[in-house]
Every structure is written in structure tokens, then in C-alpha cells.
Design a protein that fits this description.
With 188 residues, the chain is mostly helical. Helices cover 68% and strands 2% of the residues. Helix 3 runs antiparallel to helix 4.
């Protein structure tokens, strides 16, 4: 769906999106409704409606914000003290630059200087712990006693030794049997 220029213009303002223009149209209806029901000769009622509109963010577009300014002028005209009237809140920014980059870098670097020493200490302790863990793994890997790192190899080696021992005993037993058999045949 293509944006038409008519869809974006509301109350003399050209909005960037159709959604913003629709919000402004809804605010126009709210303004018309308030204008019909609000009696400016009763400034305390106007102040109450104004404060609720500000607190509940009823108006977000220039249409509603200009109506809030009108309410401020009317309240001042009817004797409401200026210190009781909140300023019209603006919820957006109007420039791309909030601070120069040097200020931003300085504020980030100086935000928590008390933690810099702790950070360095923590970093050194962590490096020491990493080296200690690596050393323990190397020692465990090269150790002769079975451990979690070399347990499988230790078990395989132990079974190999047992198998070799059994094979040797079997050979000795067979040799002894042959010797006995030869002695028995030779004595008969």
C-alpha cells in the first residue's frame, strides 16, 4: 500500500509515518471532545484534566501538545499560579547529537573509577587460577596413578599386565605338565 501525502498531513503537520498521522487524528478527536466538555472558567477542573493528561501521556503528537499549551495559557489567564502548572513533557529528542564523542568516552571511563583496582585484581587472580588448573591437568595427565584423566589407559595397561602374567603362568604350567608327563613315561 502506497503512502499518499493526504494520509500523512494532520492539523498542518506532515508526519513521517501513517501510524503517527493516525495517532494525531485520534488526538484531534480527543481535543474536540475536551473542548466541548471543558469549562475554562473553572480553572481547577482544567488543571485536574491537564495533570491527568500529562501523567497518562494522553497527548504525544504536536496536535495534542499544542492543545496542552493552550490549556496552560487558559489556566494562567484564569489565575492558576504558574508553579502549579507542569511543563508540557516532550518524549522525544530533536537532534542527532546528544553529546560529543570525547565527553561520552570520558564519562564512560570515569563512571566507576573505584572498580578499576578491583577489576585489575580480579583479572590477575583469574589468570593465576587458570594457570593453576592447567598445571593440575598436566600433572594428572602425566601421573602414574589412575585418575579421571588417564583412568582408561591405566585400566587397559593393568589388564594387559594381567594377561601377560596369565599367559606366562600358563606356559610355565604346560612346561611343568610336559616335564611330569616325560618323567612318568621315562620311569615306566
Amino acid at each position: 500500500m502506497e503512502k499518499r501525502e493526504d494520509d500523512l498531513v494532520v492539523g498542518g503537520y506532515r508526519f513521517a509515518t501513517v501510524a503517527d498521522a493516525e495517532t494525531a487524528r485520534m488526538e484531534e478527536k480527543k481535543v474536540e471532545n475536551l473542548e466541548q466538555k471543558l469549562d475554562y472558567r473553572r480553572p481547577q477542573n482544567v488543571l485536574l484534566v491537564y495533570n491527568r493528561a500529562v501523567e497518562n501521556r494522553v497527548f504525544l503528537t504536536p496536535i495534542g501538545l499544542s492543545y496542552l499549551q493552550k490549556m496552560q495559557r487558559e489556566m494562567t489567564k484564569w489565575g492558576v499560579p504558574a508553579d502549579k502548572i507542569q511543563p508540557v513533557p516532550l518524549y522525544g529528542t530533536f537532534s542527532n547529537k546528544t553529546a560529543n564523542s570525547r565527553t561520552i568516552r570520558a564519562s564512560v571511563a570515569n563512571r566507576h573509577p573505584e572498580y578499576q583496582g578491583r577489576f585489575v585484581t580480579s583479572l590477575l587472580i583469574n589468570l593465576i587460577l587458570v594457570f593453576l588448573v592447567a598445571g593440575m591437568v598436566v600433572i594428572a595427565w602425566n601421573s602414574d596413578t589412575p585418575n579421571i584423566v588417564n583412568y582408561r589407559q591405566a585400566v587397559v595397561n593393568e589388564y594387559s599386565e594381567w594377561e601377560q602374567e596369565l599367559t606366562e603362568r600358563e606356559r610355565e604350567l604346560r612346561n611343568a605338565e610336559r616335564q611330569l608327563e616325560a618323567d612318568r613315561l621315562g620311569t615306566q
